[in-house]
Amino acid sequence: MNHSIRPQLVIPVAIVLTVVTLVVAFVGSPDSNEPDIKTAEPTILRGEGQESAARLDAWTRPVSTDPRVVAIAYGRAIWTYDTAKHGLDDWQNAVSVFADPMGEGPRIARSLLPHFREWQQLELRKARATADDITAEVTPAMKRLQDSAAAPKGWTGFVVQGKQTTVIDNEHVVTDRRAAVGVVCTSICKFWSASPQIEP
Asked: Phi, psi (5° rounding) for residue 191?
């Protein structure tokens, strides 16, 4: 009779010991969790570092209800680059985010960036550029467009101007930049249109 009870006790005891072992392994002491945390952190930090290396701060799209803020940020994004830190695709993707993802907005937002062959030349010459003193003005021509029946609801047009400082072949060149930029504001403001051609 003792022989028949012993196998019946061994199985429940083994199950209890397994459960206790698992609980101790998962919960453990605070010190036992510390190595796992330390191991996980560098992986997260490396991922964030890689993402930020391909994305310049000047490309950040503001979340704003002020169309002027968005127009100025768009101007800064299209006039700022660094061939040592990112590719043309990174720049195009960052500028596309200014527009509503539906429709032609992203393509139009990218239209003021260099073409691939121009980008290759910039890369060869290790070019980089920053934009400063950016302003956005509603000119009389833009006001007429805004008041016309053809303008989308919430549309505001600006002439965006700024100074672009380019370093190319270690030479600094300052260029005045201008663009006509349209922004539509509903709940928040988004890029709508842009053109390098500006009416007088």
From this structure: -60, 140
Give the model confidence (pLDDT) of 30-70 as tens digits.
443 433 333 232 222 223 333 445 789 999 999 999 999 99
CA distance 137 to 180: 10
Residue 49, amino acid: G
Return the amino acid letter for 85.
Answer: K
CB 177 within 8 A of CB 135: no
Q: Is 177 left (phi over 0), alpha (psi -120 to 50) or beta?
A: beta
- Of the CA atoms within 13 Å of residue 41, those in its CB half-sphere come to 6
Sheet of 81-82, strands arranged across: 81-82, 128-137, 155-168, 171-185, 189-195
